[in-house]
Amino acid sequence: MTEIPPSHPRYRSLMTREGLVKGMKKGIVAEAGLIAHGRGEAFDYLIGERTLPGALIAEQVAAQTLKNARHPVISVNGNTAVLAPKEIIELAGLTGARIEVNLFHRTEERVGRIVSILKKAGAKEVLGEVPDARIPGLAHERGKCSSKGIWSADIILIPLEDGDRAQALKKMGRFVISIDLNPLSRTSRAADISIVDEVSRALKNMIEFLKSGKEPGIKDFDNRLYLGRIVDHIAQGLMGLYAKEESTGNPEESKE
User: Fold this and answer.
1) How far is Cα of residue 212 from the mean position of the Cα atoms in its chain?
2) Other CB atoms within 10 Å distance of the CB of residue 237
3) Which domains does the chain show, CATH number per domain?
4) Among 57, 68, 77, 127, which residue is least crowded by beta carbons within 10 Å?
5) What whole-number distance in Å separates Cα of residue 80 and Cα of residue 134?
6) Model confidence over 82-107: pLDDT tens digits?
């Protein structure tokens, strides 16, 4: 890995990138996963690299929903396994959720490596290595799932998922919770609760909320209204930024 000084203003972001590149070289992260991360990071810039108040409410409602589920499942791909393995395991423990590896770019080798990462981080059981069911409407390898996991789940958390799978899970009648920094993605628009936040921040917030023993700050969560407010926040932030630059004639230094 490239030596990055902690004093670098983009230290955390650059270390995350390095970790994903390392994961790709080890056959855990798909090459396309690097592109997906870059797209998400761009949206993270736009929301200010922080958890927005609306996202925090979504995380609290999502955490409580998982805890109250009959058969919750957390779906894990390569990026999630590299970015937040301990958080996935802790959240599963707090909610009674099963963990299942479910991949867009699936190979048995990748599945095995991801299962290994999760077990090394403390997971006692990880589904997905021996799929015996299929998500309807998803062709080839990516439709494979476990009858003990996604197939029989009532509520599924899908961090960093693809839109086709989110839509297919909804057609199966599953309640879908997504974590996706892009509020415009098919995944965000298909989900019942769409958490627009960086995955490790989101999971840590959900864990902290469940440990607090509190109730969510809202009972009737309107996902479309919430996503609209996220988009408005991004638009207003950009308009305000450029209005400021125009008035001062001194553009702020862009993030690199």
Assistant:
1) 22
2) 14
3) 1-248 (3.40.50.12640)
4) 68
5) 22
6) 999 999 999 999 999 999 999 888 88
